[in-house]
Write a structure and sequence with these properties.
- By secondary structure, the protein is mainly alpha-helical.
- Helix content is about 35%, strand content about 10%.
- Strands 1-2-3 form a three-stranded antiparallel sheet. A two-stranded antiparallel sheet has the order 4-5.
- Helix 1 packs antiparallel against helix 2, helix 2 crosses helix 4 and helix 2 runs antiparallel to helix 6.
- It starts with 7 loop residues before the first helix and ends in a 61-residue tail after the last helix.
- The relative contact order is 0.19.
- About 25% of the residues have low confidence.
């Protein structure tokens, strides 16, 4: 892998995927919404977008150097345009872009050798993909930085954003029962998530609160980003003609 810094969606994927089996540690639909939310978080960290009264607004209309971030920035309405004024609600954008976002980042990481794509068949009939670590994977380094940041109390905005995203998609190592350090360090307990509820702190509605975080002062706050997703095959476009996970 090149020395280019990883973006939040890439780091979240590497945290979420088992490097040996290539299967997410969390629910697949949670991860889709989380990757889309992470793309917005990265755009905001780099200064391309901002929040205005709960809406995502483009503040720099030029394309970012990162080609995938450029795709997502172009999908947002220009400043001053939108159905109800400037910008677009983050919840609407994440719901619309979730599958595309995860598919594009998986494709990019496979192309760079960070992940491998293995195609298998469920019941010998239905194809699906797994994505174990590739030869150029920095997954171990990402996990080490994540744990070091947790031990230090998440001193930087990027670390707090990644922690909140990981908590929102319910990665077991992050939000195991009785461990709320990550959510406290992120400045949120995953807004809208019930404090009681089922064991392990899982919400009863898949997709709710995904990518919900505070991320520090002035950062986007995505609350209840998506309603309960519909069931059915997961499609990612031409490169993903089969399901990713059984």
């Amino acid at each position: 892998m090149s020395g280019a810094a990883l973006t939040l969606p890439e780091e979240l994927l590497l945290l979420a995927l088992d490097p040996v089996r290539g299967k997410p540690y969390c629910r697949g639909r949670f991860l889709e919404y989380g990757i889309a939310g992470a793309a917005l978080a990265e755009l905001e960290l780099q200064g391309w977008i901002a929040e205005e009264r709960g809406r995502v607004v483009v503040v720099k209309p030029l394309d970012p150097p990162d080609p995938l971030l450029a795709v997502f920035l172009r999908s947002l309405p220009p400043a001053g345009k939108g159905r109800s004024g400037s910008g677009v609600p983050a919840r609407r954008w994440v719901r619309r872009s979730a599958r595309q976002a995860e598919g594009l980042y998986l494709d990019a990481l496979v192309e760079r050798g960070v992940l491998r794509r293995e195609t298998r068949r469920f019941l010998g009939l239905f194809p699906y993909h797994r994505h174990p670590a590739g030869a150029a994977s920095p997954a171990d380094e990402v996990r080490q930085r994540f744990e070091a940041s947790r031990a230090a109390g998440r001193p930087d905005p990027r670390g707090r954003m990644l922690a909140a995203l990981a908590a929102a998609v319910e990665l077991p190592s992050v939000v195991r029962q009785g461990d709320r350090r990550t959510r406290r360090a992120a400045g949120t307990e995953a807004p809208g998530r019930p404090r009681g509820g089922r064991p392990g702190g899982r919400s009863s509605s898949p997709g709710r609160n995904v990518a919900g975080h505070s991320g520090g002062h002035g950062r986007l706050r995505w609350r209840n980003t998506a309603a309960t997703p519909s069931r059915g095959p997961r499609r990612y476009g031409p490169a993903h003609a089969s399901r990713t996970h059984p």
